Amino acid sequence: MKERRKVMQGRVVSDKMQKTVIVEIESTYKHPLYGKVVRRASRFKAHSVEPTVAKRGDLVKIIEARPYSREKRWRVSEIVQRGVVVEEIREKELEELRATEEADRAARRIEEERRAAERLSKLAGEEEPSAAAEEPAESEAA
Description:
With 142 residues, the chain is of the alpha+beta class. The chain has two domains: 7-83, CATH 2.40.50.140; 85-142. 39% of the residues lie in helices and 35% in strands. The protein is built from one helix and five strands, in the order βββββα. Strands 1-2-3-5-4 form a five-stranded mixed barrel. A hairpin with a 7-residue loop joins β4 (59-64) and β5. The longest helix is centred in the last third of the chain and has 56 residues, at 86-141. The radius of gyration is 35 Å and the shape is elongated. The protein starts with 6 loop residues before the first strand and ends with a helix.
C-alpha cells in the first residue's frame, strides 16, 4: 500500500532562518450561515535545502515530511514561481525618491543663494549710485 503525503502550495513570507522558510497558504471557504466567502491563511514552517532554496516572495509547493523540529513538519518540494518582494521594490522606490528630493533641495539652496547674491549686489549697486547722486547734488549746492 502506497503512502500519500499532503501537498500544498503557498507563498514564502519569511526566509530569515537557516534551512527553514515560512510558507503562508491561503484558503477560502463559504461561511455556513452567512454565505460570505471567507479567506483563511495558515502558516507552515518548511525545510528548504540546497536544490530548492526558496526566497521571500516565491510560490512554492510543500510536501508533508518527517518531523525536522518541534514545529517543522513540511519540506519544500519545488519552486513553482520565483517572486518579487514588494517591500524591496518599495525600498528601492523610497531610495530613488530620497535621492530626487535631495537633488531638489540642493537645487533650491543654489537658487536661494543666487537670489541672495543678486539682492546683495543690487543693494550694494543701489547704494553706490544713490551716494554718487547725492555727491554731485552737494557739489552743485556748494
